[in-house]
Amino acid sequence: MSFALFMDGDMGEQTGKLVTFIINMVSMSIGFILIPLLPMPLPYIVAFLVAYATYKDKPYGMFTGSLLISLGLVYHLSRIGFFQIFQGPLVKIIILSFLIAPFAVCPAIISNNLHIIAIEMGVIAVALPFFEKTVYLAIPLILVFATIYKGKGIAFTFIYYAFISIPLQVIQYLKTFQEGVFPPLYTPLNLIYSDIQSSLSYI
């Protein structure tokens, strides 16, 4: 499969930008809804504005969307108690900085539409473990994208998937931990999803 339409010629560039705009808006909407920082219907409005700014080649487009997802993640991790795992304010600041850094660095170094799509694939892959029927599809989605596009872009996909999903998986494990019982390798983040969505009543 070729991605020439994203990079070759004026028509290919415009087509690529349009496809990127659609994928960007969908994935940002998913991210803003599953890890909400804003009340409805603002996630849809902000997702459109982020995608439109990115379509217009504004550097702040992807940075803004990425930062909002990271702030939503940090807010819910704080509310759920993730940072209480770590002892001392300095350690917590280091962990917090470590979690936010990729969301600021990655948008700054993207150089084409495929890099943007790679980031969005990471966000979409994060959404799949929230539901029982799609929990097994996250890794296959990333691997399929990896076989299609080999390059720096796949690193963006893995980074976004890992930095969003792993902290949530840790919290769910701690919530369901039973001494002497090994956690399942694949489990939907249904408890975390219910907890996050219930918080919408006071966002």
List segments where confidence is low: pLDDT < 50 over at least 5 consecutive residues.
1-11
Domain count: the total is 1
- How many beta strands in the DSSP annotation? 0
Average pLDDT confidence is: 81
Could you spell the SSE succession in H and E letters?
A: HHHHHHHH
What would you say about this model in short?
This protein is an all-alpha fold.
List the helices and strands and how they pair.
Elements: H1 9-34, H2 42-55, H3 60-80, H4 89-109, H5 113-127, H6 138-148, H7 152-176, H8 190-198
Descriptive labels:
mainly alpha; 70% helix
Question: Could you explain how this protein is built, in words?
Answer:
With 203 residues, the chain is mainly alpha-helical. The protein has one domain (4-202). It has helices at residues 9-34, 42-55, 60-80, 89-109, 113-127, 138-148, 152-176, 190-198. The longest helix has 26 residues, at 9-34. It is globular, with a radius of gyration of 17 Å.
